[in-house]
Amino acid sequence: MKTNILVQYEGGGYDGCIWEWNFFYIDKDGNFENIFASGVGGIGDAEIAKELVETGHNSFTSQIYVYSLDSAADLDELAKETNSVLVAGIVKWFNNYNVPGVQPYAICSECGEHIEDHDEIALENWHGCGGIMSTADALLCRECRNIGSCSYCGEYYGDDREWIWTVDKIESEYDLPKGIAERIDENWGPLCECCCDTLLKEELGRAIKRTQQK
After folding, report:
1. Could you give the residue ranges of the DSSP H alpha helices within 124-190?
2. Which residue from 27, 32, 143, 197 could staple onto 46, CB 3.0 to 4.6 Å apart?
3. Is residue 174 part of a domain?
4. Per-residue pLDDT of the chain in tens (214 residues, 90 and over written 9)
5. Does residue 167 belong to any structural domain of this protein?
């Protein structure tokens, strides 16, 4: 039997014939590790897992993908073609399993960086993906997530650069005392329109209070 492989197969099987992707791992010594198994299609037994890998089907499914964790091409395929939420889950499982030299990765959809640490993965805009599965519109490294987010509220806007309120944009939209736009941008930028408006009101309120106290 092949070893050091990650196997993705159609498991599940609930009321209404709902299925979902399940996973198991065969380590370098041929040991079976159940990563996720669900429903009647889930595999929790080494012999059944071996049969599925060798024949490509069982009584529940013929949908199976076998990734060699020794193959750079297979690791890339896993990261690029598999549901982003599932990829993040696989990265986390291998982080915890901690096999030297064996670590699938995610790929940041903004910069293309390989992300091997689950804590550095950010998933944006979760939504349903048919049946009981979920996916996300973007899988990001923390750096790209931060760059594309309002630094005050944390909302992610990605490459929609219209949301960024710079000093020039603030000053073009508001008649402000000198220095207020610069102070807001230096302390909080980049900002979305809503947070920019909130901070401007707070800063103007403080400026008025200082004037009244003189």
Report:
1. 142-147, 167-173, 180-188
2. 32
3. yes
4. 799 999 999 998 876 567 889 999 999 999 999 999 998 899 999 999 999 999 998 888 889 999 999 999 999 999 999 999 999 999 999 999 998 999 999 999 999 999 999 999 999 876 665 555 676 778 999 999 988 888 889 888 887 766 767 777 777 877 777 788 888 877 777 888 888 888 888 888 877 787 777 6
5. yes
Q: How far is CA 201 from the centre of its chain?
A: 35
* H or E segment and range at residue 9: strand 5-12
- Asked if the structure places residue 65 within a domain, the reply is no
Give the integer Cα–Cα distance in Å for 7 and 41: 14
Q: Which of 141, 160, 25, 22 is nearest to 82 (CA)?
A: 22
CA proximity to 33, closest of 101, 117, 97: 97
Burial label for 207, CB within 10 Å (0-12, 13-18, 19+), is middle
Let me know if residue 168 belongs to a domain: yes
**Nearest to 139, CA basis, from 157, 155, 156, 121:** 121
Burial class (CB in 10 A: 0-12, 13-18, 19+), 212: exposed
Residue 58 corresponds to which amino acid?
A: N
* Tokens 């196997």, residue located: 7
> In which domain, by residue range, is 172 found?
163-213
Q: Of all helices (H) and strands (E), which one includes residue 128?
A: strand 121-128
